[in-house]
Amino acid sequence: MRRYLNALVLALLAATALAVPAQAHAELKSSNPASGAALDAPPKFIELVFSDTISLPDGDAVTVTGPDGAKWPVTQVHALDKTITASVGEAAMHAGEHKLAWQARSDDGDTISGAFTFTVKLAGQTSSSSPTSTVTMSKIVTNAPPSTTPSESGGVPAWLWIVVILIVLVGVLLLVRRRKA
Questions:
Q1: Is the pLDDT of residue 104 over 90?
Q2: Is the separation of the CB atoms in 69 and 108 below 8 Å?
Q3: Residue 121: CB partners within 8 Å, gap ≥ 6?
Q4: d(CA 84, CA 74)
Q5: Which of 13, 69, 89, 96, CA to CA, is 20 to 30 A from 151?
Q6: CA-to-CA separations, 72 to 3, 14, 92, 133, in angstroms, rounded
């Protein structure tokens, strides 16, 4: 009897040791310039702060597009811990709504991305398009194949089923053993 109880305890420990918590992707927590901000002067740098450690993706991590469709020069892009920073050139600056698009690589290797707008008001310039207060944040996108992404169906976790099955098996073994004696 004691041997079966020890086996049950070891099986339960093994089952719970193998249970891995779901990993969430990093999310954009704050930015400078902020989403929807109205700036009196063009920003000299961009700072994106995430909820978890990130790294730079393959390709452009940060792009800024002006109201006329021209892209700003973005240089010196760095990722450190949870923050991406970049310097931006003022040569392509025009008054109006600008779109900042970003990409980052999560700790698990998946690429996340998003975009938002901010408005620049430059003295002496008129906007080629009227600035609006609309802010659009895109949904976090992952490039992981669907088969490797965890299901979030809200069902019972697999490790819990394993524990229940082990308990039932040990119970049946103990019952059979008791009836033979």
A1: yes
A2: no
A3: 38, 39, 40, 95, 131
A4: 12
A5: 13
A6: 71, 55, 5, 21
- Token pair for residue 165? 């099955």
Residue 150 or 67, more confident = 67
Burial of 82 (0-12, 13-18, 19+ CB in 10 A): middle
Q: Is 43 exposed, middle or buried (0-12, 13-18, 19+ CB in 10 A)?
A: buried
Instruction: Show the tokens assigned to 109.
Output: 């290797």
pLDDT at 17: 64
- Give the separation between CA 84 and CA 106, rounded to whole angstroms: 12
Comparing C-alpha atoms, which of 166, 107, 178 is closest to residue 142?
A: 107
Cα angle for residues 60, 89, 110 (degrees, 5° grid) = 15
The pLDDT assigned to 164 comes to 83
Read off the pLDDT of residues 63-94 as tens digits, 9 standing for 90 and up: 999 888 888 888 899 999 999 999 988 766 67
* Six-digit token string for 134: 């609309």
Taking alpha carbons only, the member of 8, 35, 39, 9 closest to residue 119 is 39
Q: Where are the domains of the chain?
A: 2-19+157-180, 28-144
What are the tokens at 129? 């398009």
Task: Give pLDDT, residue 18.
Answer: 59
